[in-house]
Amino acid sequence: MEAVSYFFMAWTDPSLLFMVAAGTFAGIYIGAIPGLSVTMAASILISFTFKWDVNDALALIAGVFLGGVYGGSRSAILLNIPGAPSAVATGIDGYPLAQRGEAGQAIGVTTVISVLGGFVGIFALATAAPVISSFALMFAPRDYLLLAILGILLVGSLSGDSLAKGVFAGALGVLIGMVGLDPLTAEGRFTFGTITLMGGIPYVAAMIGFFGVAEVLYQMRYLDLPAMKQKIDRILPSWSIVKKFIPLSLRTSAIGVVIGALPGTGGDIAALMAYDHAKRTVRNPSRPFGQGAYEGLVAPETANNAAVGGAFIPMLTLGIPGDAVTAVIIGALYIHGLKPGPLLLAETPHLFWFTVGSLTLANIFLLIFGLTGVRIFSKIIECPKGILMPLILVLSVVGTYAIQNNPVDIYWMLGFGILGYFMKVYGFQVAPVILGVILGPLMDVSYRRAMISVRDDVGMFFLEFLTSPLSLVLTLSLLLILLAQTPVWARLSGRRVRAGGDV
Amino acid sequence: MSGDRTRRPGELVFVVVLVIFSALALWQAWTISSFSSPSSPGVFPMLAAGTMLLSGLMILAETARRNAAAEQSRLKTFLREITPGRLLIFASFILLYMLALEPLGFLVSTFLFLLASTMMLYRGSVLLTVSVSAVSLAIIFAIFRYVFGVVLPKGSLF
């Protein structure tokens, strides 16, 4: 009964209602504008909202998250430029549809099925999280260590140039997270005797640097892309069209939830896998794939919205982010003094049900905003980048400064921004870095607790990876991911690996 | 999955720098507590830095195997493809902006930064640039000062 009242908290409080609506609305445009990503927006927003009540901040971020994941599809359909990483697969069939003059209907169908996918994700979150949470109390420190490594490896191996680059980026993040006083013994690590480094490297500066500044610098190379104009007529799709895609939507939503719930991997990978799934399983698409098949639009768009709810599952039950955005949200919860982990659901159930409620509400707003205001929309995404990019930079500076009012943080931000730019240019992913920064301290503490519990016996430590059933499953999955990257595996299963990993 | 794309200009140098950085980090991690016990504070940093070094070396091997794109004048291609003039100028604007924040304060330095970078990137008329910068600064200031209640950098002069 209590859960219900927390669930509807955001629905009945006018200011929270406004936060969710504003967040969703802003999210759609942030997602739609190429170069602005949800991760960027969330990292900047957490620094602005840290003085707020945690509920207000969460309501806003939930809206931005759901809206942003959907918004990317708009520019993918209209401009053939994915507005966000999760919309990369959407343009493959979305843009041909726009070229045929069906942009309006494509947007309408996308909106309705995105909302459907969103609901599947939220439903999975509401039902699975309490189960996993009670199960999570049985997790030993070494299982957290394994899960965290698994998350970084997954995101590292599924995106970017190569596994080695993903691993490097993740380890770099862990190293950044280690700087400062050791949480168990208060010994300085990588502090070089300076007081500035004792407090550690501010992770908000790292997030904004890697996702904000690096992206702004990267966009400098693509300033002159011409904007395309599209005619949009009716967008409210007829029920008969939507109905046709419901079976596929449910399958791809399930893919989205699972990929989203795996630590580290989020909407972008879910969308690509769902597209691949649709391509392999749909016998008679409305048109051939790549030439404007609605199935090619439905699959990635349901999956990436379903992945939002999925990504919250490990975050709220284990304190391990399901993707880059939830990694940022964990950062926000830390700032608000909350500790995401297995006890979160037991100690602060209101936070969980409030999050589920806000996400549900955001999903409803998504339907409303998605089906209206398309005309203004096309004006806004034509906003020239020459004006937009300097503004994003100013927001990044304000955001970084706001957390500790320390000018040094701004230099950290610029430094990480420049590093992130070169990493992007040379085919490294920046998401594993942020996962590493957030998970690093957790991994360090888990590792040492596990080691202390076996009285520093290294042999015993490794033996426990195999003797506990849960650890064994995690260890085997870890080995499988590593094995999947080696040439031996490719030879064994030939085509399938390429289909899964090369999308 | 690495495909057979050619090496981008400057890529090898970047990877070498990463490897050197990893080695230094490993050495620094070693100085924290060496191997006094498997649960001492230095072990996990050593594992992280060691992983970086190992994967860095793998990336180096991978990168060295690729063919460089064009042999003539590497520096020129690097400047053209990786750090085009616009990027360098914009980056130096950012740096100047950060340096100016403390003496000039948020309002003045941000206005100058927006003015200069919009002028360079958007190349609109002077009137348009000035009004766009002024209006967006006013909106940012109002929102952050009053909606978010954020402290904005105060200058020593203004």
Explain how this protein is built.
The complex is a heterodimer of chains A (503) and B (158). Chain A is an all-alpha fold. Helix content of chain A is 74%, strand content 1%. Chain A contains 25 helices and two strands. In chain A, strands 1-2 form a two-stranded antiparallel sheet. By secondary structure, chain B is an all-alpha fold. Chain B has five helices and no strands. In chain B, α1 packs antiparallel against α2 (43-65) and α4 (85-122) packs across α5 (126-147). The longest helix of chain B has 38 residues, at 85-122. Chain B starts with 10 loop residues before the first helix and ends in an 11-residue tail after the last helix. The interface between A and B is large, with 63 and 63 residues.
Helix and strand arrangement:
The complex is a heterodimer of chains A (503) and B (158).
Chain A lengths: L1 H6 L1 H4 L1 H19 L5 H11 L5 H26 L10 H10 L3 H34 L4 H18 L4 H16 L1 E2 L6 E2 L13 H17 L19 H6 L1 H16 L5 H15 L13 H24 L5 H12 L8 H4 L1 H23 L2 H7 L4 H20 L2 H19 L5 H23 L4 H10 L1 H16 L2 H7 L1 H7 L2
Antiparallel strand pairs in A: 1-2
Helix pairs in contact in A: 3-5, 3-17, 4-5, 4-10, 4-15, 4-19, 5-6, 5-7, 5-14, 5-17, 6-14, 7-12, 7-14, 7-17, 8-9, 8-21, 8-23, 9-21, 10-19, 10-20, 10-21, 12-13, 12-14, 13-14, 15-21, 19-20, 22-23
Chain B lengths: L10 H23 L9 H23 L8 H9 L2 H38 L3 H22 L11
Helix pairs in contact in B: 1-2, 4-5
